[in-house]
């Protein structure tokens, strides 16, 4: 049985893991919640509370063992293993995703890519040959895939998500600018720079109206 | 004076605005919080509570006026105007960002791009000529820029963020895989697909261990 851990806590753990990996790479062996908090602009209390969901870490007044906590977080998050990822949509954005160098070193291997455009099918991107989208279901029946990345136009995105879900994929990273629907047992994350910018313009506008002469 | 509105609320408003724009495009004139909630997988109560920070919208039992609420949200968020964006880092990722077709229609115009690589400087990307990074500060003194997009390698990212902040930029969209630091009066959003995937593997792993035979 697992305690119900808030999703915001789960979302922060990879950030902690990345900071600990940086510290380990610099040869640091111990870090206080204070110092970790300063690295990440969060309070030490929040770090301690987030970690408390998973047991007891660190000794009062002595900080956390960097390697020990990193290993534990990697195990909790499952980022100590290799994950098989398929990419659907190999337009300009999909190509950039396929060729992004940041996934492989973190254990995320793009094992297949799919597109409907005959000009793209058969091309090499990021080390895989683009397959036709009609082969998606058969591929997913025959091969283990853990995560689906959706980089198709907005109008196609929900139907691609549905196909991934029906094929048993439990985690979807959606780059299309829609709120895609998934069943409760499927996790989805949206990557949407426009929404991110739109949430910042509120603050720009407010600072102008309060600060301007 | 502005009420202190939680950041999570501000972050949801662009999602509401996008759904309302979709409804308007389909010719819908009225929407209930129930129907809007179903579109977005949030509860009607949350929608009503989020909107209540900004005044009274909709009439009890009659739903929201789609065009009216959309116009109001666009005004609140400042997405009813044009925003000037500069891009720093025009490697593979930066090129994909510069050529992404989704920013312009939403009022985000990339007005300048910068890189340190002499092979890239002088090239055209997304309608602008890439300038040398050494010209960043002079450019920002001479031209209004509202938002800076950072797409440089992790090792360079904090120093680029600092330069943007020192030049008076109040909003930064960071694609580099670091937790960049900014002063309190600057807003920053991180776009990080690796962290998003790492937060999903927790759930995949958990469902395997609870659901597997």
TrEMBL record, chains A, B:
UniProt keywords, alphabetically: Cytoplasm, DNA-binding, NAD, Repressor, Transcription, Transcription regulation
Any GO CC annotation of this UniProt entry: cytoplasm
DNA-binding region: 15-54
GO molecular function: DNA binding; DNA-binding transcription factor activity
Binding locations of NAD(+): 89-94
GO BP annotation list: negative regulation of DNA-templated transcription; response to redox state
Pfam family of the protein (one): Put_DNA-bind_N
Stretches assigned to the CoA-binding domain: 78-179
Compartments in which it is found: Cytoplasm
Subunit details: Homodimer.
Family: Belongs to the transcriptional regulatory Rex family.
Record's function text: Modulates transcription in response to changes in cellular NADH/NAD(+) redox state.
Protein name: Redox-sensing transcriptional repressor Rex
Species of origin: Tepidiforma thermophila (strain KCTC 52669 / CGMCC 1.13589 / G233)
Taxonomic lineage: Bacteria, Bacillati, Chloroflexota, Tepidiformia, Tepidiformales
Gene behind the chain: rex
């Amino acid at each position: 049985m697992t305690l119900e851990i808030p999703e915001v806590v789960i979302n922060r753990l990879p950030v902690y893991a990345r900071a600990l990996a940086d510290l380990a790479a610099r040869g640091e062996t111990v870090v206080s919640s204070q110092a970790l908090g300063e690295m990440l602009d969060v309070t030490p209390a929040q770090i301690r509370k987030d970690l408390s969901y998973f047991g007891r870490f660190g000794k009062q007044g002595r900080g956390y063992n960097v390697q020990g906590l990193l290993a534990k977080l990697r195990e909790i998050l499952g980022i100590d293993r290799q994950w098989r990822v398929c990419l659907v949509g190999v337009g300009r954005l999909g190509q950039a995703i396929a060729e992004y160098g940041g996934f492989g070193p973190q254990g995320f291997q793009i094992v297949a890519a799919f597109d409907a455009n005959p000009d793209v099918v058969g091309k090499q991107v990021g080390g895989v040959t683009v397959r036709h989208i009609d082969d998606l279901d058969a591929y997913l029946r025959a091969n283990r895939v853990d995560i689906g990345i959706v980089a198709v136009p907005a109008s196609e995105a929900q139907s691609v998500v549905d196909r991934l879900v029906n094929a048993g994929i439990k985690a979807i990273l959606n780059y299309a600018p829609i709120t895609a629907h998934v069943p409760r047992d499927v996790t989805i994350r949206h990557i949407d720079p426009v929404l991110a910018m739109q949430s910042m313009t509120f603050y720009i506008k407010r600072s102008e109206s309060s600060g301007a002469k």
